[in-house]
Specification:
52% helix, 14% strand, single chain, Rossmann fold, 6 helices, two-stranded parallel sheet
Length: 137
């Protein structure tokens, strides 16, 4: 299953780069899909050197994590709304920020509940283009 998700994610992102002029990608870092996305995007960065890969953490990273991010070629986006959030709702605030400011949302959401589902529904309300890989796999 992971192989199919990875393959489809790579295809979707290549399409966004080549046919929709997307050159900046925002990535989370909490879940399994986020981890897979980080790997796929690092590989695509080798092919499309001009794209920007930005991590939007829900919690400000440690110095060691920042060093790792920069060494790997990631940029940091840490919005004030996330920084000021209570720890219990930091992921929610980060997701809200992403759904308000991103043009496309690429996700893997199978269930009609939970934080990822709520974020996708918010993005839909904001008129964003949703590409849910779970609908294709």
């Amino acid at each position: 299953m992971v192989g199919a998700i990875e393959t489809h994610l790579r295809e979707v992102v290549r399409d966004l780069i080549l046919y929709h002029d997307v050159d900046e990608f925002w990535l989370g870092e909490q879940g399994t899909f986020d981890s897979l996305s980080l790997i796929v995007m690092r590989g695509l960065k080798q092919e499309f050197k001009w794209i920007s890969l930005c991590i939007l953490p829900a919690y400000y990273p440690s110095e060691a994590k920042l060093d790792w991010m920069y060494e790997q070629g990631y940029e940091l986006i840490y919005p004030e709304v996330v920084d000021k959030a209570l720890p219990q709702i930091a992921i929610l605030r980060r997701n809200e920020y992403m759904t308000q400011h991103a043009d496309y949302i690429v996700c893997y959401v199978k269930h009609k509940s939970g934080g990822a589902f709520k974020a996708v529904e918010q993005a839909r309300k904001n008129g964003k283009k949703i590409i849910n890989l779970a609908e294709y796999i």
